[in-house]
Design goal:
Blueprint lengths: L12 H7 L12 E5 L2 E6 L2 E3 L1 E5 L8 H4 L2 H7 L4 E7 H4 L9 H12 L3 E11 L8 H4 L7 E3 L5 E5 L4 H22 L5 E8 L12 H7 L5 H9 L6 H9 L8 H5 L3 H26 L4 E6 L20 H7 L5 E6 L4 H8 L7 E5 L2 H15 L3 E4 L22 H24 L4 E6 L6 E6 L2 E7 L10 E9 L2 E7 L2 E6 L7 E13 L2 E8 L10 E3 L8 E10 L1
Parallel strand pairs: 4-5, 4-13, 5-6, 6-9, 9-10, 10-11, 11-12, 12-13
Antiparallel strand pairs: 1-2, 2-3, 7-8, 14-17, 15-16, 16-19, 17-18, 18-23, 19-22, 20-21, 20-23
Helix pairs in contact: 1-7, 7-12, 9-13, 12-13, 14-15, 15-16
Length: 558
């Protein structure tokens, strides 16, 4: 079954339009977000759910046949959730005529392999471009205008200022969400929905069409200035600095309020994209109110607006997005760059739980996943291109040497361990019983972090060959002085304390454990040379591949 097949299910434009703005009662057990202690968690069928995900390549989900051999490979990697695009062009080839054969085939494939889905709506934009819009939209230049450059040239980007583009996009998205309600409201295969993908303007910092120029010269919308005044103390520091540097005005044009800079162009486009996406998300939630979010392409070092996706939901513009798009439940980063801890931490802020829908895979991705779940209470993590052969299970592709497929060995191994620890991770996210450390980049040799009443210092090990490797450790507290530890990379961890009581921290015991027949089974009791004579916990890059964790008990003495 091809998704771009002959239309078999027709829905009139009139019926689609009448659905907009009509709220429906939420089905029982609908996936939703809940605050549990200090963490916000995704709840599915009444229980917290940790998304151990992977995102498909952009075109993989356009064919049900293509996906048939892919599903079991993903399940064998211990993923529990697949992020996949549903493109506007695949469900509305002709205006007002909808075909959901492909969507139904994807739902069936996921269910058959006991996988959940996060749907990525590739509507008007994907990575700033409009390549997934239907042909009737692409060819309707007069009706569906494009973003323009400062010299008047058009671009391959639909205009976020166009009501015609917005309304057509919203009608299609609403129909998709209505269909999901009809076919999935009991099984809850689909957990969340991403609205559009990595929006923004390139190669210039803003749209220069006549309607955009007129809007730029108009007053900043009162909804934004009111939000800024009401949330001043909690505003993003870079956003607040730009506003205050321009005088902290509460009225005026965009340049009067935020200054004459390319950053102002970025904030202006952020308001426009967020306002557009608010209409799309609201139309979808009126049909089926699953959690929804928007994702951001991050900024390369020293890049200016227009070199990156100007107007996307970046850390400095998150307040603009919050003001303009209240129907979005959170904003997410796509992290492929270094400084993972910095970028991820920028999105793990009050009112915005962390979900990483796109990230690098391999050993670095495995380390990042441990840090995101353990330190930042992430809802989920998803390496991109998970359907690559390199990410397939070794035994299913005939690979006997794990070094031939490092991406697979790392991601499959970390998800194997995390899938078994997920209930404990979720419980301790809400009770502050988790911690994690990350070492990234050659310049970083160690990381110091808190562990309940103790302090831990993780130091890079392994010699010159490990000088640039990304290393992480996740700690789950199981008692006042007892922890389960999952590591990725070669390192050693020592312990100290600054709390009242005996000043020296020793290691009472370290036990290796592996998961067998539904239980964690003790292996060796490590001592002597294996724990530096009781002074350190040693982690090995081979631990994850062996499905190994450590149970460590500490004590204090004078």
């Amino acid at each position: 079954m091809k998704c771009l097949s002959v239309l078999t299910l027709l829905v009139s434009v009139a019926s689609c339009g009448s659905a907009l703005g009509q709220a429906h009662s939420s089905p029982a057990g609908l996936p939703h977000l809940e605050n549990h202690g200090s963490a916000t968690q995704l709840v599915v069928d009444g229980k917290p759910f940790l998304v151990l995900g992977g995102e498909l390549h952009n075109s993989s989900s356009s064919s049900v046949e293509y996906m048939q051999p892919v599903w079991p490979r993903l399940a064998a990697m211990h993923l529990n959730t697949v992020l996949l695009p549903v493109a506007w062009e695949t469900i509305e080839l002709a205006e007002g005529k909808f075909d959901f054969q492909c969507v139904d085939g994807l739902l069936s494939g996921a269910r058959d392999n006991h996988l959940k889905l996060v749907i990525l709506w590739f509507g008007a934009w994907k990575n700033t471009y409009s390549s997934y819009a239907p042909a009737w939209v692409k060819n309707g230049n007069d009706r569906f205008p494009r973003v323009q450059t400062s010299d008047g040239r058009g671009t391959e980007r639909l205009s976020p200022f166009s009501a015609a583009v917005r309304d057509a996009d919203a009608r299609a998205f609403a129909q998709l969400m209505r269909h999901l309600r009809e076919v999935d409201s009991e099984q809850h295969t689909v957990l969340m929905v991403q609205v559009e993908n990595e929006v923004g303007v390139v190669p210039e910092s803003r749209d220069h069409s006549p309607v955009a120029d007129a809007s730029f010269a108009s007053p900043v919308p009162p909804a934004l200035t009111s939000f800024i005044q009401n949330h001043r103390a909690a505003l993003d520091p870079a956003f607040r600095a730009a506003w205050e540097a321009a005088g902290g005005k509460t009225a005026g044009t965009w340049q009067q309020v935020f200054g004459k800079s390319s950053l102002t162009d970025d904030l202006f486009m952020a308001w426009q994209y967020a306002s557009y996406i608010e209409r799309i998300a609201a139309a979808g939630k009126a049909e089926y109110p699953l959690p929804m979010y928007a994702n951001a392409a991050l900024i390369r070092p020293n890049y200016e607006p227009g070199q990156y996706n100007s107007g996307g939901p970046l850390p400095h513009s998150m307040d603009v997005w919050r003001a303009a798009a209240p129907s979005l439940d959170f904003l997410s980063p796509d992290i492929y760059f270094n400084e993972f801890a910095l970028w991820a931490g920028s999105y793990a802020r009050p009112g915005n739980p962390l979900f990483i829908p796109e990230a690098q895979g391999g050993p670095a991705g495995a380390a990042n996943a441990l840090y995101a779940f353990g330190r930042l209470s992430a809802i989920g993590f998803a390496p991109f291109g998970i359907d690559d052969l390199g990410n397939a299970p070794l035994d299913l592709v005939g690979i006997t040497n794990p070094s031939e497929s490092p991406d697979n060995a790392a991601i499959a191994s970390v998800y194997t361990v995390l899938s078994r620890l997920a209930p404990m991770i979720l419980e301790r996210q809400s009770a502050n019983g988790l911690s994690a450390a990350l070492i990234e980049g050659e310049a970083q040799r160690s990381a110091r972090f808190s562990l309940g009443d103790f302090t831990a210092t993780m130091t890079r090990a392994g010699g010159a060959s490990n000088a640039a490797a990304r290393i992480a450790a996740l700690f789950l507290q199981t008692g006042p002085a007892e922890f389960l530890v999952v590591g990725s990379g070669d390192a050693q961890i020592t312990f100290s304390t600054d709390k009242p009581g005996p000043p020296i921290v020793g290691i009472e015991s370290i036990d290796e454990e592996i998961f067998q027949k539904g239980a964690w089974v003790p292996q060796r009791r490590l001592n002597g040379d294996e724990n530096s004579q009781g002074q350190a916990l040693r982690l090995s890059a081979a631990d994850l591949a062996q499905g190994k964790i450590y149970r460590i008990r500490l004590y204090r003495y004078r």
